[in-house]
Design goal:
Mean pLDDT: 78
Order of helices and strands: HHHHHHHHEEHHHEEEEHHHHHHH
Number of strands: 6
Strand order of the largest sheet: 1-2
Strand content: 5-15%
Distance between the termini: 39 Å
Largest sheet: 2 strands, antiparallel
Shape: globular
Length: 460
């Protein structure tokens, strides 16, 4: 027989949604915040010649700029005030997580609970400002050195342009960071993830329309188009299945006595996700592989400078569809999958927490033996998760490279964008369902109180 929670979840319908006023306010707030974000991606950076920059971006769109443009919802292509997007904050968060695993002071802060978490978040904000300022200054220098056929990208270069660019781009990143925190607190879902999700989804319709237009013109075959679409649908189904997959370790708690009463031992599960690293491995792998291509493109287009022969060889070998590119892509995804899993999940800390609360794994002694077993299981499921990530991210790239599909579609229709879009959608839907379940429970409790009050009045 289904439990009360399962029955409640099964009874969720549009009627329950219509009565959940708090949930509707949260959804409207989330949509409004994302609308403000999309509006900001169309506000151009002051001092930039839009036509000259559009030409320069077109020549570099297959590099790392194409991937950043996808994450920013086209803000890089338009060189808008949100061109840096939320990426400096994500980089700062990852750096702080890495430092927390090697620095004793940060590790102690992490164990202090809410107060320590607030302090680490403050350090993350400071690091975000520093990274955003560094990247914004690099963008200003790069823009001043770029030229199009119609003239320079920056008509009036100098320190005034550099300072205004740094202030504008850093301010845009900090505003998006604040907006993401507001969505998390007052909306539905994780705000930072939803901002990246909105950028990817905004670029999808245009990319799909261009793909169909390319097929209509005969540049790619109908078979290649259908194969790519079928692969994308299959990849989304695999992502949904694998992201929900868990390895549950049985945790038992011994009998305990409270006063004169003896309580039976309870049992629960320790869930280990098949993909604990999330979307971090493919993002890092793509960034590292596309960086040489971008450097070569800028060096070739900046003030007529010639590209060194060794850099030309590297960029040719790392191009889309090349065997070295595919091999390094898979190797980097697998490496970052294991590396990031080791950073975010500590088996020894988990074993210590279990022992602190009296829990144990059947057949394993608390402490070191439990930590070894958790590490044993986690390593083996991470192998499966790494293979899954590599397959999902590599298969669309193979099709795009070998079926004559332009490489410019790779960033939007690739496995990384699908992985982010599907994962964020699943997380948001799960939070909506949890709000509906909580609302129904509140309704049942109120009805029970009213019935109890009417019964007591009737007896009087």
């Amino acid at each position: 027989m289904a439990s009360a929670a399962e029955q409640l979840a099964a009874n969720i319908n549009f009627g329950a949604f219509a009565k959940a006023e708090d949930l509707k306010k949260r959804i409207w707030f989330t949509l409004g915040a994302l609308l403000i974000y999309r509006f900001g991606t169309f506000i151009p950076l002051p001092g930039v010649d839009a036509a000259a920059f559009a030409e320069t971006f077109q020549n570099n769109s297959t590099g790392i700029l194409g991937m950043f443009n996808m994450f920013s919802g086209g803000a890089v292509e338009r060189m808008a005030i949100f061109a840096l997007n939320i990426m400096p904050y994500i980089s700062a968060s990852i750096i702080m997580q890495l430092l927390s695993s090697v620095d004793k002071r940060l590790a102690e802060l992490k164990k202090e609970g809410e107060q320590g978490r607030k302090q680490i978040n403050q350090y993350t904000r400071y690091l975000t400002v520093a990274l955003a300022a560094f990247q914004a200054y690099g963008i200003a220098i790069g823009l001043e050195a770029s030229r199009g056929s119609a003239g320079p990208v920056i008509p009036d270069p100098g320190w005034f342009f550099r300072i205004t660019t740094v202030i504008t781009l850093v301010g845009g990143t900090m505003f998006l960071m604040w907006l993401g925190e507001q969505i998390t607190a007052r909306g539905v879902g994780n705000g930072i993830s939803l901002i990246i999700f909105a950028g990817i989804v905004a670029a999808l319709p245009n990319a799909i329309m261009q793909l169909f237009e390319t097929a209509r013109q005969g540049s790619i075959s109908t078979f290649a188009l259908l194969l790519l679409l079928v692969t994308m649908v299959a990849a989304m189904a695999i992502i949904v299945f694998m992201e929900r997959a868990q390895r549950r370790l049985l945790v038992q708690y011994p009998k305990r006595q409270v006063g004169n009463r003896m309580f039976q031992g309870d049992s629960s599960h320790l869930p280990l996700k098949l993909n604990s690293a999330g979307v971090i491995p493919p993002i890092f792998a793509s960034s590292l592989l596309l960086l040489p291509i971008t450097v070569a493109s800028f060096s070739a287009g900046s003030a007529g400078a010639a590209t060194p022969d060794w850099l030309t060889v590297i960029t040719t070998s790392l191009g889309y569809g090349q065997p070295l590119h595919m091999l390094l892509y898979v190797v980097l995804i697998i490496f970052f999958c294991f590396f990031y899993t080791a950073v975010v999940f500590n088996p020894q800390e988990t074993a210590d927490n279990l022992r602190k609360y009296g829990g144990f794994l059947p057949g394993r002694r608390p402490g070191a033996q439990t930590a070894q077993y958790i590490d044993y299981v986690l390593t083996r499921i991470t192998v499966v998760g790494a293979i899954y990530l590599a397959t999902v991210c590599l298969l669309p790239e193979l099709l795009i490279a070998n079926l004559g599909i332009p490489a410019s579609f790779g960033a939007v229709l690739g496995g990384t964008s699908l992985l982010i879009a599907v994962s964020v959608t699943m997380d948001t839907v799960a939070q909506v369902q949890s709000h509906l379940v909580a609302h129904q429970y509140e309704g049942l409790i109120k009805k029970a109180k009213l019935r109890g009050a009417s019964t007591s009045r009737g007896r009087k």
